[in-house]
Automatic annotation (TrEMBL):
<feature type="domain" description="BPL/LPL catalytic">
    <location>
        <begin position="28"/>
        <end position="214"/>
    </location>
</feature>
<dbReference type="InterPro" id="IPR004143">
    <property type="entry name" value="BPL_LPL_catalytic"/>
</dbReference>
<dbReference type="GO" id="GO:0009249">
    <property type="term" value="P:protein lipoylation"/>
</dbReference>
<keyword id="KW-0436">Ligase</keyword>
<protein>
    <submittedName>
        <fullName>Lipoate-protein ligase A</fullName>
    </submittedName>
</protein>
<dbReference type="InterPro" id="IPR045864">
    <property type="entry name" value="aa-tRNA-synth_II/BPL/LPL"/>
</dbReference>
<dbReference type="Pfam" id="PF21948">
    <property type="entry name" value="LplA-B_cat"/>
</dbReference>
<dbReference type="GO" id="GO:0005737">
    <property type="term" value="C:cytoplasm"/>
</dbReference>
<dbReference type="GO" id="GO:0016874">
    <property type="term" value="F:ligase activity"/>
</dbReference>
<dbReference type="InterPro" id="IPR004562">
    <property type="entry name" value="LipoylTrfase_LipoateP_Ligase"/>
</dbReference>
<dbReference type="GO" id="GO:0017118">
    <property type="term" value="F:lipoyltransferase activity"/>
</dbReference>
<comment type="pathway">
    <text>Protein modification; protein lipoylation via exogenous pathway; protein N(6)-(lipoyl)lysine from lipoate: step 2/2.</text>
</comment>
Length: 247
């Protein structure tokens, strides 16, 4: 019987990380897959969002911070090495044949992770909060064969860095606009943990939720999907600018 696994992979280019994130879902795993990863500085918008409503593009250009697009919905986020990304890919049906609820599964994982680190938290609108500040943002993407839920976890990223690149809430709110919330990292809550220690906490929480995870390299199918998605989306400027993909 195939069991849950943690895939180990990393890429220097944030666009390649985003391509691999989606590739894990497209490969249609038969059991849960966990991937823990980080990006260099970039801004990542949700699939249907308008960059001009979400991002201070002139500041990003001035600072050399790329603006990229992911396949999932949800709001715009700032990535840097102090922000841990956690991807959970699930088959469409659970072991007993019931429909899987990816946001609930991800919320359980991140709540347990933050508890493992010693902080109380609460689930809110597509994210996890400590007090009134968002610590983790959630987003989901579904296909006919599986579900992907991913979370950011602010380890040491300063709130000022996030605010430098993301716009304030527009005066004319629209359905796809980000839900703006005050953010604060673990460090800003007084919990000065390194990325390695936080990663270990994610693994402990995932093993308790999913069962013992086998560590593995990417499969041939995941590599194939990664190459395909690099070509049709993530190495294609129009995808990041407008959500249009190459045929």
């Amino acid at each position: 019987m195939i069991g849950p696994s943690e895939v180990v992979a990393s890429f220097d280019d944030p666009a390649d990380n985003l391509a691999f994130d989606e590739a894990l879902l497209r490969a249609a795993p038969e059991a849960p897959v966990l991937w823990i990863w980080r990006n260099t500085d970039c801004v990542v918008v949700g699939r249907g969002q308008k960059i001009e409503r979400e991002v201070k593009a002139d500041v990003c250009t001035s600072d050399g911070v790329p603006v990229l697009r992911r396949a999932s919905g949800g709001g715009t986020v700032f990535h840097d090495p102090g922000n841990l990304n956690i991807t959970l890919v699930l088959p469409g049906l659970g072991l007993s044949g019931e429909a899987v609820k990816p946001l609930e599964a991800l919320g359980e994982l991140m709540t347990a992770t933050v508890a493992e680190l010693g902080l109380p938290s609460r689930l809110g609108d597509r994210g996890l909060f400590v007090g009134d500040a968002k610590l983790c943002g959630f987003a989901v993407f579904r296909t006919r064969t599986g579900l992907l839920a991913h979370s950011t976890l602010l380890v040491s990223t300063a709130a000022e860095r996030v605010g430098r690149y993301l716009t304030a809430a527009p005066a004319d709110p629209r359905p796809l606009d980000s839900h703006r919330s005050r953010v604060a990292s673990l460090a800003e809550h007084g919990l000065r943990k390194g990325v390695a220690e936080v990663t270990d906490a994610v693994r402990v929480a995932a093993a308790a939720q999913l069962g013992e995870l086998t560590t593995r390299k990417p499969s041939a199918e995941e590599w194939e999907w990664h190459r395909s998605l690099q070509h049709t989306r993530y190495h294609y400027a129009e995808w990041h600018a407008e959500g249009a993909q190459r045929k």
